[in-house]
Amino acid sequence: MSKNKIPYEEKRWHARGGQARGRGSLGQLSEYQTTYEIYVRASDYEECEFLMRQMGEMR
Q1: Prediction pTM value
Q2: Model confidence pLDDT, tens digit, residues 1-59
Q3: Distance (Å, whole) CA 1 – CA 54
Q4: Which residues have CB under 8 Å from 44's CB, separation 6+?
Q5: Which residues pair with 20 in a beta bridge?
Q6: Which helix (H) or strand (E) holds 52?
Q7: What pairing do the DSSP bridges indicate for beta strands 19-20 and 23-24?
Q8: Which of 40, 54, 37 is nearest to 8 (CA)?
Q9: Which long-range contacts (CB under 8 A, 24 or more apart) does 34-40 make?
Q10: CA dihedral (54, 46, 20, 36) positive or negative
Q11: Phi/psi of residue 50, each to 5°?
């Protein structure tokens, strides 16, 4: 988002006790047990969503 000059706030937390927001994590690697929430202004939402979809397609 910063590359595209979209202000945002990020919150993240690590799962404890094998649970991530009510979901089990049996067999899941610990590096995938971090939950992220990204907050943007409503006026930037569509552009942010587009950019995040592009990032997912690049992987």
Answers
A1: 0.59
A2: 889 999 999 998 876 654 445 555 566 666 667 888 999 999 999 999 999 899 887 76
A3: 12
A4: 6, 7, 8
A5: 23
A6: helix 45-58
A7: antiparallel
A8: 40
A9: 36/10, 36/11, 36/12, 37/10, 37/11, 37/12, 38/1, 38/8, 38/9, 38/10, 39/8, 39/9, 39/10, 39/11, 40/1, 40/6, 40/7, 40/8
A10: positive
A11: -60, -45
CA distance 50 to 57: 11
Tokens of residue 4, six digits? 């595209």
| Residue at 52: amino acid letter | M
Q: What distance in Å separates the CA atoms of residue 11 and residue 36, rounded to the nearest whole number?
A: 6
